[in-house]
Amino acid sequence: MILNISKHIYTVLTADPTVSGLIGDRIYPLGTKVETALPFVVYERNTVTPTYSKDGMASARSYCSILCAGETFQSSLDLANAVIAALDGVTASYDGFDVTRAAVSSAGENYVQGAYIQEVEFSYTIISN
Predict the structure, then answer these.
(1) Per-position DSSP letters for 26-66, written without gaps between them
(2) What value, to the nearest 5°, has the Cα angle with vertex 16 and ends 6 and 65?
(3) Per the confidence metrics, is the pTM higher than 0.85?
(4) Which of 11, 22, 61, 128 is the residue whose CA sits 20 to 30 A from 101?
């Protein structure tokens, strides 16, 4: 249950018309193939902190980074803003877990191997259903 937040991120981003209009299906967990064309998104789960009750795990807080890569600084910003609009505040139910909170927790930027990178970290609260 607590490791499935990646399913939520992928589902929301691929369904968002603005994000998919900018990058098509170039949304990847953890990394990309060497020859991936810009722009693209990479998402990764950074930490998961479970909360327990007397009955076992009650919920979990998950922090995930979304890396938005673009050929220009502005294109990376445009993509990051589209990703934020798509994910921030979006909750959902899936088989086995619910995402009950989704919020931006931090952001940064970088330049790596010819790509401008905007990194947006999200904090999620997940409960079993």
Answers:
(1) -EEES---TTPPSSEEEEEEEEEEEEEETTEEEEEEEEEEE
(2) 35
(3) yes
(4) 22
